[in-house]
Amino acid sequence: MGRLIGRTLVELCITAGALIVLLTCYLLFWTNISADNAMAGEMDRLQQQWDQPQQPTPSAPAAAPSAAPSAAPSLVAYPPGEAFAVLYIPRLGRGWKKPIVEGTGETDLQKGIGHYTGTAEPGQPGNFALAGHRRTWGNPFNDFPLLRPGDRIYIDDGHFWYVYVLDRTPLRTLPTDIGVLDPVPPESGYRSPGSYLTLTTCDPAWGHSHRLIEWGRLVSTSPVSAGTPTGLSGA
Predict the structure, then answer these.
(1) pLDDT greater than 70 at residue 19
(2) 25 annotated active-site
(3) Cα–chain-centroid distance for residue 21?
């Protein structure tokens, strides 16, 4: 009887070990491969869309972050789950670029950086807020803690380049701290309405107990036809 129990325990340990190995392979490799393919597909779809004959280019939004809007901005209803712009963060690596997808649900974050629905459009008054995975599904924000004040963040929506500059080191907070998405986030250091950017990810890298937050402000807007903004290479 004791031998049978011992053999059963050994078999259970072997089975558990095999499951752990399979889960690790899934998290470390398969999710990244799947995400890379999904992001590449979104980038291709966006480029094809931008290559189509366009309507007359809209007037450039005013790049005046300190100006108070007279009314709440009207938000574009981006198609849920689809990319509408491309995010570039040189600090995270030469040539680092990811599609920005509408929504922050599980499937949205598996194919790009998610835009919090209901927050501002890029370049517009308010808070343009984004979220990305730290680990798994492409590890897009794995090096998030490396972000520093003065880093520039570039966004291309097919019509304009929007350039934001970060103003602080990442803040660690709780997932319940939804004030980080306010039009003027209380902990950001900003005190008046403007055009702001919020970046969010999980902390620790393999956990969900906290969030890392970065804030930036709009410093320039230029038509895509004018070329790549100064300071950005590999676009």
Answers:
(1) no
(2) no
(3) 29
Beta carbons of 186 and 28 less than 8 angstroms apart: no
* Active-site residue, from 133, 134, 135, 152: 133
In the set 115, 134, 159, 211, the catalytic residue is 211
- 130-177 per-position pLDDT tens digit: 999 998 878 999 999 999 999 999 999 999 999 999 999 999 999 999
208 in active site: no
Give percent of the chain with pLDDT exceeding 90: 62
The helix (run of H) or strand (run of E) holding residue 71 is none
Residue 209: CA count within 13 A, CB half-sphere: 4
How are the residues of the chain apportioned to helix, strand and coil, as percentages rounded to the nearest 5? 30, 25, 45
Q: Indicate if 202 belongs to the active site.
A: yes
Domain architecture of the chain: domains with CATH? 5-53+65-226 (2.40.260.10)
Higher pLDDT, 33 or 106: 106
